[in-house]
Amino acid sequence: MSAIPTEQITGLILAGGRGSRMGGVDKGLQNHLGLPLAMQALLRLQPQVGALMINANRNLAAYESMGVPVWPDALADYPGPLAGFLAGLERCETPYLVTVPCDTPNFPVDLVERLAAALVAEDAEIAMAATREDGQLQVQPVFCLMATTLLESLVAFTQGGQRKIDRWTGQHRCATVVFDDADAFFNANTLDELQRLQPR
Ligand SMILES: Nc1nc2c(ncn2[C@@H]2O[C@H](COP(=O)(O)OP(=O)(O)OP(=O)(O)O)[C@@H](O)[C@H]2O)c(=O)[nH]1
Ligand SMILES: [Mg+2]
Asked: CATH number of 6-196: 3.40.1030.10, 3.90.550.10, 3.90.1150.10, 2.60.40.420?
């Protein structure tokens, strides 16, 4: 049994970025193995959670066709992934929200289970993924499980004009889960990186 029942966790696909390193395209709609990246992320997250949502800021109809609720940022001007966290927390109807970005199609299939175990074991409010690169711990802050009660805190933080994820998570009890397979977190920020994800 998982530490937190699956039905208490809502999964949020973060697809609200500018995609500037990919030439400004809507990254979540880029094709990967025959499906849009955001759809690949939805399918991978679906067995790990009880409900799903997408955060996107462009081409909302295309995202809506994926069959789950779509919420744009309430904050203007693409202030970064925390705006997506905020949109998700505002709409989340379960005690926990977990986020994954749309550009990392091979993320672990036990992501949520392991984040939930750490959150409970460490009595934390947030559990975040990390990898090790050249012996250095590399946090993967957009892979984040959080208690929905943090909404008020994030509203206050973003209203103060703050944007940095680690500045916000640093205000809370935060567990870090190290995943050995760093390749699973390879994300396509450029067209070249998206190409590298395709099988040869
Ligand atoms: N809601 C929302 N999500 C964002 C924003 N900026 C980035 N993200 C998301 O955060 C995740 C990680 O961001 P990046 O990989 O830097 O993606 P990006 O912003 O689309 O791409 P770049 O413009 O090239 O940095 C992705 O899932 C993005 O969709 C934003 O302003 N609002
Ligand atoms: Mg990225």
From this structure: 3.90.550.10
Which whole-number Å values give the CA distances from 117 to 9, 93, 112, 145, 163, in the listed order?
Answer: 13, 21, 8, 11, 28
The number of the ligand 1 atom at minimal distance from the alpha carbon of 22 is 24
ipTM of the complex as predicted: 0.97
- CA 5 to ligand 1 centroid distance, Å: 29
Q: Which residues line ligand 1 (CB under 6 A)?
A: 14-21, 27, 55, 73, 78-81, 83-84, 101-103, 142, 187, 189
Residues of the chain with pLDDT under 70: 1
Contact 76, 16 (CB under 8 A): no
Mutate to test the pocket of ligand 1, among 13, 26, 27 (most ligand atoms within 8 A of CB): 27
3-state secondary structure of 13: strand
Write out pLDDT tens, residues 66-97: 999 999 999 988 999 999 999 999 999 999 99
For residue 24, what are the contacts with CB-CB under 8 A and spacing of at least 6? Answer: 18
Distance 121 CA to ligand 1 centre (A): 30
Q: Where are the domains of the chain?
A: 6-196
